[in-house]
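User: Can you help me understand a structure? I only have the sequence.
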Amino acid sequence: MTLKQYKYNGKWSEKLDKSLDSSKTLILFFGSSKKEYVQKALQEIQETYKNSIIVGASTAGEIYMDELEEESAVVSVLKFETTQIKLTTELISDTKDSFHIGERIATTLTSNDLKSIFVLSDGLNINGSQLTSGLNSVLDSSSVVSGGLAGDGANFESTWVIVNGEMKSHYVSALGFYGTSIEVESGYRGGWDKFGIQRKVTRATDNILYELDNKPALDIYKMYLGDKAKDLPSSGLLFPLELEINESNKSKTVRTILAVDEDEKSITFAGDIPEGSFVSLMKANHNRLIEGAFDASRSVNLKNYKDEEILCIAISCIGRKLVLKQKVEDELEATLENLPDNTKQIGFYSYGEISPGASGKCNLHNQTMTLTVIWEKDAPST
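Assistant: Let's start by predicting it. Here is the structure, written out as tokens:
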């Protein structure tokens, strides 16, 4: 695998290497949700890499190595030796179709030699937990599934993914990696602390939460947020929910806000909040978030790695960025501390992260740092 990376801030950090263009070349393109800032960059990528597969998404901040970029584009070009790649896209005609979209993607990409699937989705018009459930209904844990939901800063207005070379809303794109040479590993961690009492979900439909302990959910949320309530939904990113399906279940998931409805006193989250489950509000501690990023990289399995070219795709939640502020690059440095010295890192701040959970099957995570680490084993010499 040959790997090169570029930044675009009105001009490229260096000249694009046209020699890497091929049917086995993957272009990862993460850019500002403001299309006018990155339209020219995407056009030049298309013109340079006419035979390559291009995937990408809008962001709430672009990640390039250990640096945060904004209103820019970051690009990785991976030319594989033997690995096959296949792209599929799905239109999101209705959020309620999220499960079936995941099911169709998995059915399209599944194969005996499938190693991994990387998923990028519109961040506002999808139910991420239903999407991952649909993927899991077809796939087993032998295939690593990771990715994220596109971002739009703290605006929550419009996100995009790349479809046929265009930046489009209401789509999911997914890339399959095939063969015995490709290695894909993933890791994730959070780092948030609970505060307040645990409450029971007494009324909810899919990812819309109406009542906690038989009281309007939005009223309870506002009580905890105090003065910050006036800035919802963006201020809700600072106070996500920790979700337990039942009190005896040790597996916990974090959910983050996408929208609020003042009339219904409801809150829409990036993933499902099942009735009968238990939730606790969470708040951030700078050191714990940075430790979480460090632990995410430490959890990546590198036992099969030798000294090949290696890429880390870092997808972190917009909530972490808002909390860390000037310290945000500390977590980007932390992700690289446990990875090989020659690791190249690219990624973005998102509205949701997809990574395998304890079961090995993929889950939607919120407020986490998730890492997808890719390398291609060298072909044996003849």
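Now, to help you interpret it: Helices lie at 35-48, 98-109, 128-136, 217-225, 286-298, 318-324, 328-337. The two ends are 18 Å apart (CA to CA). Let me know which part you'd like to focus on.
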